[in-house]
Amino acid sequence: xxxxSNNGISIQKVETSKIASVDFExxxxxxxxxxxxxxxxxxxxxxxxxxxxxxxxxxxxPSTNVFHYGQAIFEGxxxxxxxxxxxxxxxxxxxxxxxxxxxxxxxxxxxxEERFVDGLKALINLDRDWVKQGEGNALYIRPFMIGxxxxxxxxxxxxxxxxxxxxxxxxxxSGKVKVQIAEHYSRAANGGVGxxxxxxxxxxxxxxxxxAQEAGYQQVIWTDDxxxxxxxxxxxxxxxxxxxxxxxxxxxxxxxxxGVTRKSLLDIxxxxxxxxxxxxxxxxxxxxxxxxxxxKEIFGAGTAVTVGQIEGxxxxxxxxxxxxxxxxNSFAIQLKTGLQGIxxxxxxxxxxxxxxx
Length: 357
Ligand code: COI
Hints:
Blueprint: E1 2-6, E2 9-13, E3 36-43, E4 46-47, E5 51-54, H1 65-69, E6 72-74, E7 77-81, E8 87-90, H2 92-105, H3 113-126, E9 138-147, E10 160-169, E11 177-181, H4 199-214, E12 219-223, E13 231-234, E14 237-243, E15 246-249, H5 260-271, E16 275-278, H6 283-291, E17 295-302, E18 306-315, E19 318-321, H7 331-343, E20 354-356
Parallel strand pairs: 2-5, 11-12, 11-18, 15-16
Antiparallel strand pairs: 1-2, 3-4, 3-5, 3-10, 6-9, 7-8, 7-9, 8-20, 9-10, 12-13, 13-14, 14-15, 14-17, 17-18, 18-19
The protein binds 2-OXO-4-methylpentanoic acid.
């Protein structure tokens, strides 16, 4: 292994890359990781040196905070390679800012922009061969932080580890999905942690999603915890509805994640002259619009999936199939193409969202 130093970042490279053994045509999302990872520890009230080292197992005491109290947060981001072999990040500072919002809510320390963004750039630069060109190809980036203090006292950790791992990815879901609207379970509540990317937010979805899958649906559309009428998120994504020619999504709140893909799609939609409304939408609005033939599309939006089309929804034991919309007439497809075009540098980035590595 060779050890280098770059702007205060220590870099320990693998001797032999494992890239030749990876089948990039048949990647299962999030199952293959690049050669290196970034690690930085927080102790005695401050962050230490950023280290880039070979991706591999870590060792923690069984009493470590994260195993018992789940003091853990993460982000999801992507890097893309353009036709000139340049590698680009998409709005990385938005993820950095949201990471710190999650950290605040989970009683964890903020991390500075240099360690997060510059560290990430150094990591991706080292593993840049893992970022593949072409439609649907990206490097999925997973920054996360865990409480590493040893001891089972139920309180915030005093020590933390920040880490970034990267996984070559193609699209997250293949094809359209059927969803079930939540009538009993909730993903978030006012005053809770719904707007953060804390790990428990996702673990709490596993059981209701498993029940929905057993009933024949792939995902759940989450409703507000108090009335189960307001449509808030879909699975691990923000959710959009097209009624007539208006695109509608719920406003962000304490219960709804401020998705980077969500806000980018809203800006792209406006730039294309699509009528956009950010407002609360209830299940009955959806059922009424469906009855009138005005409900044309529902889709989820998130980093992993980009845009995930929904073919129909179930509510109170009844299934509502959405009409077929051709790709040329689909808001989901137009917005996905617009977003991916910017991300992959095929369309001019007039918004200034992309950052070269
Ligand atoms: C993302 O879209 O990046 C997410 O964080 C969702 C994840 C659970 C795959």
